Amino acid sequence: MKCRVCRGPAVVDIRRHNAAFCGEHFLHHCREQVRRTIKHYTMFRPGERVLVAVSGGKDSLALWDLLVDLGYDADGVYLGLGIGEYSDRSALAARAYADERGYRLHEVDLAVEYGYDIPGAAAATRRAPCGACGLSKRHLFNAVAIERGYDVVATGHNLDDEAAVLLGNVVRWETSYLGRQHPVLPATPGFARKVKPLIRLGEREMAAYCVVRGIDYIVEECPMAEGNRHLGYKDVLNVLEDRSPGTKAAFVLGFLDRAQERFAADADVEREALGECFVCGSPTTGDVCAFCRLRERAVGT
Ligand code: Q46
Ligand code: ZN
Ligand code: ZN
User: Fold this and answer.
1) pLDDT in tens, 185-231
2) How far apart (Å, rounded) are the C-alpha atoms in residues 224 and 214?
3) C-beta separation of 34 from 197 below 8 A
4) Measured from the CB, is residue 118 less than 6 Å from ligand 1?
5) Is the CB of 254 under 6 A from ligand 1?
6) Would you say 166 and 255 are in contact if contact means Cβ atoms under 8 Å apart?
7) Which ligand is the nearest neighbour of the Cα of 225?
8) pTM higher than 0.90, yes or no?
9) Residue 214 burial by CB count (10 A; 0-12/13-18/19+): exposed, middle or buried?
10) Residues whose CB is under 5 A from ligand 3 (ion)?
């Protein structure tokens, strides 16, 4: 296997591009993919402050690394979810990455600052933990961005994640979710812009990026992911990708280019008529926002 660019020994092959790369040219490939994604979707404007949602896993650490490398003013935020040893180890990975490079990492601990954790919230709501977790993350990443003056929150969703979510939304025709499944959600009063710069890079590429760059990330998956239906969609998509490399990219990027806009109106309807949450002041459709309602049920469990 030889590098497509320099013909030296390759360390990574990417079937959907029908290409292999040496370490140096693989890093260049990753940067180029991110640079092009940022430009294509106009994710950042000059001088903006970026907050990277960091979990300690490969995607978010690679994203932070790539953004700094591309010259962006990017800090991180880590949310302590209280999911046993998994959370302890992921916090160590996030802190070590930031400390070694002198980057700024904000930390929010759910149990200490909000009085609940994800296993407790799941028990209190009798729902799958990922629902409470996703809601808490969305709310708190945004809150940190707004409070500390960041213009945009960047998350490490990769091509595999986006393809799985898209398949789930298509299978159930969740049209308002389809309308929101865009790599840029514009800022609205009380909400920072949200962007996903890794949507052209797959899971394997992100793992390889971390290895080549010497980034220590937490390899184990969250123990509460079981039952997360997106894992099933990922398996199905991997079978398709294996038979026909490029399927995931064609699915996601084709949707964004050709169809996403058609569903935007469904998402807009829900964004109308936002008032302020009685408890925390966040924009919400009701009197009390979903995060504060979750917290009220979960505190003390
Ligand atoms: S951390 Fe949270 Fe994930 Fe764990 S509980 Fe589910 S959503 S799986 S990315
Ligand atoms: Zn090369
Ligand atoms: Zn609230």
Assistant:
1) 999 989 999 999 999 999 999 999 999 999 999 999 899 987 676 77
2) 28
3) yes
4) yes
5) no
6) yes
7) 1
8) yes
9) exposed
10) 277, 279-280, 282, 289, 292
